[in-house]
Amino acid sequence: MCEIFAMSSRFVENVSTSLDEFSRHGGSTKHHKDGWGIAFYEDGDVNLIREIQPASGSAYLEFIRNREFNSKTFICHIRKATQGKVTLRNTHPFVRELSGKMHVFAHNGRLGAFDQQQKLSGRFQPVGESDSEFAFCYLLDALAPLWQEKSIPELADRMDVISEFAAKLRNYGPANFIYADGDAMFVHGHERMQEDGSIAPPGLFKLCRYCQFEKSPFLSQVLPKDAGSKVQQVTLVASIPLTEENWTVMESGELLALRDGRVIMEENISGKRTPCPETTALLAAPA
Fold first, then answer.
1. Of 52, 170, 202, 234, whose CB is crowded by the most CB atoms within 10 A?
2. Distance of CA 132 to CAs 76, 124, 139, 164, 261, Å?
3. What number of H helices and E strands is found in the chain?
4. Is the bond leading into 202 cis (omega within 30 degrees of zero)?
5. What single DSSP character describes residue 134?
């Protein structure tokens, strides 16, 4: 089964060191050798780099690590093919334009007959054969009415649509996904194949960090010069913990909305939704 990893941060960051452990899972320490991809936002557009070769030995990934691309939003995927050939068109993340915004999607799991039992409007069509890309097109079909005026829809309205989409996916199989629309990142945890071969929760883990100038072995955590005394906020999500830190299990059916490195809204499987007010005490260093 595939693995996904994403980062949302308050100030631009790079994930060059973050990719080290994650990429090793792509054919070295793990068996996810059927391609990899990374998407990150830059000046209102998305930089998308994908390859059908294993991530662990990729010269492209070495270039990314050395180049140290910066963004506030990264979405990464390493693939273990379960549906669709090992080709670029079936390699995550997937990107589409909707209402002048670039939308990105990556999924971990197998969705059974979802792509056979559901219908698309025709506005968005898969390029490849994967159930994941079909699901992304289905989600954009559902979201499209909210984006008609080319303004960013209310967060709660988007959460309504994404929550309904996630609930439908869960009926077909493991439904861990990361979706970003240029304003917020939405993360849904469900279940995945565990080390013993069972399909069970957890499907995703999250890690929240607040830092100032100290370096981490996982993130660069160097603030821009104009940040002053403000504190960097970073939220990471991954299929399995990538460091020895205290990652938090995402509950099955949990849906998060992230912006600028923090969770701004969360919903559990029963539909209970909680806005997450900003913790201002963590946003500035002591005088």
1. 234
2. 14, 13, 11, 16, 26
3. 5, 16
4. yes
5. H
Q: What digits encode the pLDDT tens for the residues 65-107?
A: 777 789 999 999 988 666 668 899 999 999 999 999 999 999 9
pLDDT digits (tens, 9 = 90+) for 170-229: 999 999 999 999 999 999 999 998 989 899 999 999 999 876 544 444 444 444 555 555
How far, rounded to the nearest angstrom, does the alpha carbon of residue 207 sit from its chain's CA centroid? Answer: 13
How far from 94 is each of 80, 84, 190, CA to CA, in Å? 16, 14, 20
Q: Which amino acid is at 193?
A: M
Domains located in the chain, CATH noted: 3-282 (3.60.20.10)
Chain length of the chain? 287
pTM: 0.88
For the chain, list the strands marked E by DSSP: 3-13, 36-42, 45-51, 71-78, 94-98, 101-108, 176-180, 185-188, 192-193, 199-200, 205-211, 232-238, 248-249, 255-259, 262-267, 273-275
Instruction: Give strand ranges (E) for 111-254.
Output: 176-180, 185-188, 192-193, 199-200, 205-211, 232-238, 248-249
Sign of CA dihedral 161, 258, 61, 82: negative
Whole-angstrom distance, CA of residue 234 vs CA of residue 14 = 11
